[in-house]
Write a structure and sequence with these properties.
This protein is of the alpha/beta class and 319 residues long. The protein contains twelve helices and nine strands. It binds phosphoric acid mono(formamide)ester.
Length: 319
């Protein structure tokens, strides 16, 4: 099967078959990480440009490693040092990169819909690395991959998304991905951080629970979201102390969880707020495995968008 798409903008528009194709394609790429040479020549001659208008550690570096492990060239447009600072528009910046004959633009932007604007106006492949509060599709995919790897299935899994859902593009991509793949999703957090729009869009296909104990007691996995201080323009939470008390996944609440419940976090973490170190570094945590899996997922996305039909296992064997 082929991913018949120029771009990856969201998980909302992907079918469950397309999601499964990406997850399956990432499996042999992850195996490559155990080889002494972690590289295949699949995208040799292609150029992947990074256009990050917001800070990033995991997403940018793992896209860069993914591109390099597929033997592509990479180009990082350092936005703070670029002509964006002189007022150049997003579209003009995108067109400039296209004129330089890059093949992919991986974009992170604070505005919802910025990747879509490039997608509609450029011929290059556009990959959304997080836009505003809209979506972060590769994070959603790597979370699905990690869940499937750990639990051997996604369908029927009880997954809690915990915390600042209002500001979270990770939550939205997870919601689309998990519901399409048949997981049973519970959203948990303070009322002020659980947007009406999500309740309207997902309706009865997700459960809303304001009480953390009730939300997590039958969970197979909990995806803990970061409290996004940079997007808290109004007082959505009365106090951090109260938030920690009610919704922080700290050691004092771990006895509420099933023995085999795993804990995910997209990073970066506010240790001591939404999660404490004993949980983040504890035996239930799969947070660093998410990071490793992110590279395999991003390799699969670049590989499939480039139109590769060769089985990735064959690509590894031919390398
Ligand atoms: N999960 C995530 O998007 O992390 P970064 O902001 O470090 O890329």
């Amino acid at each position: 099967m082929k991913l018949n798409r120029k771009d990856l903008l969201n998980l909302e528009s992907l079918s469950s078959e397309e999601i499964e194709l990406i997850l399956n394609t990432a499996v042999p790429f992850k195996r490559l990480f155990t080889h002494s040479i972690k590289k295949v020549p699949t995208l040799r001659g292609k150029t992947v440009a990074f256009l990050f208008y917001e800070p990033s550690t995991r997403t940018r570096t793992s896209f860069e490693l993914a591109a390099k492990r597929l033997a592509a060239d990479t180009l990082d447009l350092a936005v703070p040092l670029s002509s964006v600072q002189k007022g150049e528009s997003l579209l003009d910046t995108g067109k400039t990169l296209e004129a330089m004959k890059v093949d992919f633009i991986v974009i992170r932007h604070s505005e919802n819909g910025a990747p879509e604007l490039l997608s509609k106006n450029l011929k290059v492949h556009v990959v959304n690395a997080g836009d505003g509060t809209h979506e972060h599709p590769t994070q959603g995919l790597l979370d699905l991959f990690t869940l499937r790897e750990k639990k051997k299935k996604i369908k029927g899994l009880r997954v809690v998304i915990l915390g600042d859902i209002l500001h979270s593009r990770v939550a939205r991509s997870n919601l689309w991905g998990l519901t399409k793949m048949g997981a049973r999703v519970t959203l948990c957090g303070p009322k002020s951080l659980l947007p009406e729009e999500i309740k309207r869009v997902f309706g009865k296909s997700v459960r809303i629970e304001y009480d953390l104990k009730k939300a997590v007691e039958d969970a197979d996995a909990i995806n803990v979201l970061r409290i996004q201080k940079e997007r808290q323009s109004q007082g959505f939470i009365p106090s951090l102390t109260e938030y920690i008390e009610r919704y922080g996944l700290h050691q004092n609440k771990i006895s509420w969880l099933k023995k085999d419940c795993i804990v995910l976090h997209p990073g970066p973490m506010n240790r001591g707020i939404e999660i404490d170190s004993s949980v983040a570094d504890g035996e239930r945590s799969v947070i660093l495995e998410q990071v490793t899996n992110g590279i395999a997922i991003r390799m699969a996305v670049l590989y499939l968008l480039a139109g590769s039909t060769l089985n990735p296992q064959a690509a590894l064997e031919n390398s």
